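Handover notes (outgoing to incoming on-call)

Open items:
1. Glycosidase: sequence verified, structure written out, both below. Nothing else pending on this one.
2. Nothing else urgent.
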Amino acid sequence: MTWDPDAIVFSPLDVDLSCSPLRAGIDSETYVLGAFNPGFTRLPNGNLLMMVRIAEALKEPVTGNEIHAIRWDPQRGYLTDPHELALVDASDPRKFRIRSHSSKVMALTSLSWLLPVELHPDSLEIVGIHYDKSIGPAASFQEYGVEDARISKVENTWYMTTCSVSAERQCTTLYTSRDGLNYELQGIVLDHQNKDMLIFEGKPGGKFHALTRPTGDLYFAYPPSSEFEAGPSINLASSPDALHWKPADTPLIRPRRGSSSVMRIGGGTAPILTSRGWLMLYHGVQPGTVVGTYRTFHAFLGADDPARVLSVHDERPLLESRPDLTSHLRDLRYLENVVFTTGLVDGGDHFIVASGEDDLACRITRIPKRDLGLEANLI
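Glycosidase structure tokens:
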């Protein structure tokens, strides 16, 4: 192994915006706010593939008394919508909130699309940036973009879940591929706010299984004596075909009081089968910064029954944000203390882990299997 065991491998500096799908309609100057949260898999040729989220933002979203949002329209393509500046909260560089609504209503000054980046498995050298295979909005439920891909290989098919954002709904969408590189949109699979759908890389009990995490603005309190804290939890669902999903009746993993994940938790990597059961990496969030401090933890689920939680390891994180890794990007940084793990590939005696670092760049980390109590062989 010749590469650094923890390194930034792709950043906004590596993106050629002349090849962006937004060039089909946006004349205003844009920049890459972040190239991060990559879906991650191994291709048939042995190379690694990151499906990188490119958040492309307006350089000057404010003109006079108006602030502009980027949007895709099925008839007119990419365009910008003006909103009266005095009526919005524009403190976040990624979005603004429209104050006149009783509900929380947002618009985005950036639009996310997905860029396949191919890496050499040994050196992590970029061997291909596949702009011709980039994925942008293709349906009305994606008018504000396609975000945070997660990739699972089940039998001979690659399944990629994404978050699709629009005024119609915030939903989870599914793409499939026969080669890991060319993906076809299959449509909506979860019709509610769900940020972290992860399909198991296998079929326990002969069914597809997935981690899900529905979110919202309202949660009901646990009793004071409970070990759990109210908030988003990681749940389980099953499906006969990866299109139609039945949620499990009980939650899977919940935030625990007193832990460093008390603010929220969410799935990180597609569960893979090991000698200790299904290994899943997930993020836990603790209050402190603008969006909270994100760290990566892990858990094991039963091999034959993934609804059975064998162990949750939330005492010591596997990964934390490392500001030194993005010191060369400090002028572009707008968040801190965030590592958002999104992919896991077997590397022999170690795992290769892909993460988004500070919503800015793609980080690859090598984690020895012995650190997780595993032998070199995966199963």
